[in-house]
Amino acid sequence: MFSGYKNAWSDEQAYTEVYRNSIQNPNEFWQSHARGISWKIEPSIVFDAVTGKWFSGGISNVCYNCVDRHAIATPEKPAIIWYGDEEDERREISCAELLRMVIRIASILKSRGIKKNDVVGIYMPMIPEAVAAMLACARIGAIHLVIFAGFSPEALKYRLTKSNAKVLLTVTSFRRGGKEIELVNRISDAIDIDIINLDSITYPDNINADIEWQNSDDDLFILYTSGSSGNPKGVLHSALPYMLYVAATFKVIFGIKRDDVYFCTSDVGWITGHSYITYAPLFYGLTTVIFSGSPTYPSAERYWQIIENEKVNIFYTAPTAIRSLQMFNKKLVKKHDLSSLRVLGSVGEPINKSAWKWYFETVGNRRCPIMDTWWQTETGGIILAPLRNLEQKPGVAGKPFFGVETEIIDGELVLKGHFPGMCKSIIGAENATQDGIFRTGDGAAYDGADIKISGRMDDVINVSGHRLGTAEFECAISKVAGVREVAVVAVPDELKGQTAFAYIVPNATDIAPEMLVKKVIQSTRTTIGSIAKPDYIAIVPDLPKTRSGKIVRKLLKNIAMGSDALVDISSVANPQIIETIKIITQNSIFVPNMCKL
Ligand code: PRX
């Protein structure tokens, strides 16, 4: 399982050769990785390029591969190590214990009548039970739908209703940053669904959690993400092809070893928490460290303490986290022994040079390559990463994974052809791919032989690595009585990468600006969640529009960014408003964090 393609992701020449072969003969490449899967029935062919089908005739199960086989082979080995909000909160879940947890949750689901292909909502903090709940669904062939615990009950309800979920798994509450955050009480009034509170459940006497064997057409999960327009969309991923992709990318890109301890700071509410906290590390039986606290509570040393305590070898985090920790004294990092680290990873947004340098020098001590991995909810796993050596260039995501064809068309990164991580479909959107081409929505350019990502080209705002649509903000804000019109644009932010700037046209009423701002913040919090707060609000008399009444967002964005870049204003029907908006923008209302106003 750990042999082959040894230098393929560290040596340029080896990479080029393996990449060429993987495109010319994809079946051979994927077959070499599919050997790591434990099959009930082996597929006759791994990838059939004629039909585009994976694993013809093959039967297996994702949970069996990630849990059962390791519970048999290495029952005592820690599968999950969990750290909570306080420094002394630590739990170790062995491979055998994880199997017991998974079976208990699966049997509860079965006792509530959950069958193959039923959708099961999971609204939980980053605790081992959340990982076990996902695997329990996989075990019985149910489709999990994880909703980030920071989303509001309204956002939760939207996702559950749209995907026709049958039950919701949750817990009473959790602690983060020293605060208690309620879950079950927050939702029980708002949502009419069978809610299973895993804290207070009595497990059925009759344990019935047999494995539901899956073929390549079976599904594993739906995860909602923000699109370029309208409401969030549900991305549906297959079970077995997805597992193959996340396992292959994890092994090759991070260069894992059998006894590695791996720590990813994401959350199961996002795709990274699915692919690289849960499925990829557990597929190989590695120890995956999870953390439900805040990186700065009770001190800004939490990550470094955990790395030292657990002798973490691979650490995968987001640029936002790096930027927020970079503000503290270096000594907080340096007083910890981080010599176990071999590889560092970054995901979720472009990593700026200063954060990259600090990560490389202060955390990695100039010894560890930084795997700046670019990918998306839709792609299931990593698409671009630099080679794993010390000759990297900061801010350049790098090279496409084997078997994945990329092209830059009109400045946008597009993916071509078939690879097993690509989602099956997007609920409530057009086809995910058109004519075998998937448009990523991200701007990209070549930097020599590598690809450099500049960020979203569409109306998606990446706030601290959280993907939110301007349309979602606008929908939440336009609900507020007193708001006549709203346009939200993304602006750069030193800490969060990007943030939302809202232009609001009030009704003719004489509502006080402070009151309007307060209501707007309340509405984004209840409609989306507290992660979605516009940092700047400008209350303006009108918005720039075309003759057909379309808001000229590009112009607003330039004004918000203080950019003098010329935008063609010949199509603007009310150009006289531009100067007024510019002046108000300079005096816009800054909404502080934890704003109570
Ligand atoms: O804009 C890109 C940015 O995050 C978007 C995908 O968001 P999501 O589906 O939530 O998945 C995040 C975790 C994979 C992309 O369209 N993005 C992600 N990684 C990078 C990135 N932008 C630049 N560099 C990255 N390494």
**Unreliable spans:** none
Distance between the termini: 56 Å
Q: Strand arrangement, largest sheet?
A: 4-3-14-13-15-16-17
Give helix % range.
Answer: 25-40%
CATH C-level name of the largest domain: Alpha Beta
**Which ligands accompany this protein?**
adenosine-5'-monophosphate-propyl ester
Q: Count of DSSP E strands?
A: 30
**Shape call:** globular
Mean pLDDT: 93
What class do helices, strands and sheet pairing give?
Answer: alpha/beta
The count of domains is 2
Write out the CATH superfamily name of the largest domain.
Answer: ANL, N-terminal domain
Rg estimate, integer Å: 24 Å
Largest sheet: 7 strands, mixed
Q: How much of the residues is beta strand, in percent? A: 15-25%
CATH architecture of the largest domain: 3-Layer(aba) Sandwich
Kindly report the CATH topology of the largest domain.
Rossmann fold
- Please report the number of helical segments: 17
Write structural notes for this entry:
It contains 17 helices and 30 strands. With 597 residues, the chain is α/β, with parallel strands linked by helices. It has a 7-stranded mixed β-sheet with strand order 4-3-14-13-15-16-17, with helices on both faces. The chain has a 7-stranded mixed β-sheet with strand order 10-7-5-6-11-12-22, sandwiched between helices. Strands 20-21-23-24 form a 4-stranded antiparallel β-sheet, with no helix packed on it. It has 2 domains: 12-455, Rossmann fold (3-Layer(aba) Sandwich), CATH 3.40.50.12780; 464-594, ANL, C-terminal domain (GMP Synthetase, Chain A, domain 3). The chain is globular and about 70 Å long. Helix content is 30%, strand content 25%. α3 (62-73) packs across α4 (95-111). Bound molecules: adenosine-5'-monophosphate-propyl ester (PRX). Adenosine-5'-monophosphate-propyl ester is lined by residues 225, 270-272, 347-350, 372-377, 397, 440-442, 453, 455-456, 462, 467.
